[in-house]
Amino acid sequence: MLTSIAISNFAIVESLELEFKKGMTVISGETGAGKSIMVDALSLCLGDRTDAAVVRHGQKRADISASFDIQHYPHVHKWLEERDLEHDQHCILRRVISKEGRSKAYINGRPCTLSDLKEVGSQLVDIHGQHEHQSLLKKNAQRQQLDEYGRLTDLSKKVSQQYAIWRQLKEELSAQQNRSSEQDAKIQLLSYQAQELQQLDLKEGEIEELENEQAFLSNIADSQFKAYQASGILIDSDEGNVCSLLHQAINSASQIRPSTKELENALEMMNVALIQAQEAADSLHHYQDTLEQNPERLMDIEQRLSDIYDTARKHRTLPEGLLALRESVEAELDSLQGSEESLESLKEKEEQAYEKLTALATTLTEKRIIAKDELAKKVEEQIHGLGMPHARFFIQCQPLNQVSANGFEDIEYMIASNPGQPAQPLRKVASGGELSRISLGIQVVTAHTSIIPTLVFDEVDVGISGGIAEVVGRMLRSVGKRGQVFCVTHLAQVAAQGNQHLRVSKLVEDEATSSQVELLKDQNRTQEIARLLGGLELTEQTLAHAREMLGNVQLQ
């Protein structure tokens, strides 16, 4: 629960520190004194949007901090622990707004994001404003409130999330199906190309090998002649072949006398040359023996090369690019054929997602039906006590033609204010007073089931007076018994029900205006109740009435 709040330089508040207790705390004061300033400041601590206008004139920044006792709220403890923000049994929220409009947020002294502040704040405080009934006229707000009452918020979120998953799969499936006709034509073309390239079955390096072999086979006759000619020059020619001439040279040189080292070297080199010439001639003879013309093989090679060149021209690529083209065509074909398979897989996923969605939505519908009847009954009981004894309150679950992000039904609050009148949507109720009472009845019922420790009612009793106001006060006091309730009010009947009473007043000093808050006890509280009853001039009659009202509350 909220244990204290400290406000500095916020709006017309210069400095304010307050401590709070359990039960119902009422806040009253003259119009314009700033009764709702504490609520506004608390809202900022809970993550509401702000701007520079909230900073007190002439000051650099506004600073607001709120301290909560969370020892009985393990879910808040868990949230803080998960983010390393735990601090004993307390949670301190702080907001600092500069005069330039910049804002900083803190949880237990550590900087945090505004979304974190809002998330933890939503678990600590629930604020009901005086215009709450305006939002309750919207069907979305009614649906959310019913789900909150029935503890169905998490299930409702799951339905919404599953709906988003299903819709995305459905859109993907539709897009895939629209592309399928184009894909069929593409697959047919690629299949033909892949088949043609597979039949060609070109191997790595094959073109170079074929071209080399073609060149070799085409030149066999010329190669044979030149090998014969070369071997003749070396050894076979009768007219002075190399070997014969070397023999003559060796014989002549060997007869030179005296022999010298240089001569011996020359003889040795000529002998080596002779041996090499003979070996070269033997190699040429062997080469000649291996040369054999093969016109059939040459035709096969030329046909193979022709097929390769023709295929390359057909596909508008170089012959060397045919291997890469085959890989590319086969890869694209596999991808498209795989997409056909994925189309079936996608269809199966879409069906499974829809089944899961309908199962969740069906469960949500079943639980909503139970929750709506219970909520409607309790709200009807409350509004009977608020001066509408014959009113009938319903919650309509109108089935939709198909499932939506919110489930299988459209939720709408229905009211029949008088006997014999047909029920009609709450948004069509013309009377502002009736709307205020119905809204208050709904808020009181939902507050009883809320797990949030601190509830704030900011002038929700607008449009209510007399005996009904006393009923409202009792309602709020009963809600306060389970935790903590704050109520900003202008009604004495409501204010008298408070366990704690704060009065807000406006002080003008040195041409500066500021709000002050004081805790009222005994005579001061009696005077404030009397002021609410009869205006600024207090009479003994209004004071006596005020004492009577407070006394009656003590006897309850």
From TrEMBL:
Function: May be involved in recombinational repair of damaged DNA.
UniProt KW Cell inner membrane keyword: no
Key words of the record: ATP-binding, Coiled coil, DNA damage, DNA repair, Nucleotide-binding
Gene Ontology cellular-component terms listed: bacterial nucleoid
Protein name: DNA repair protein RecN
GO molecular function, one term: ATP binding
NCBIfam families in the record: PRK10869.1, recN
Biological process (GO), any one: DNA repair
Keyword set includes DNA damage: yes
SUPFAM superfamilies given in the database record: P-loop containing nucleoside triphosphate hydrolases (SSF52540)
Coiled-coil annotated residue ranges, if any: 193-220, 326-367
Segments forming domain RecF/RecN/SMC N-terminal: 1-506
Similarity field: Belongs to the RecN family.
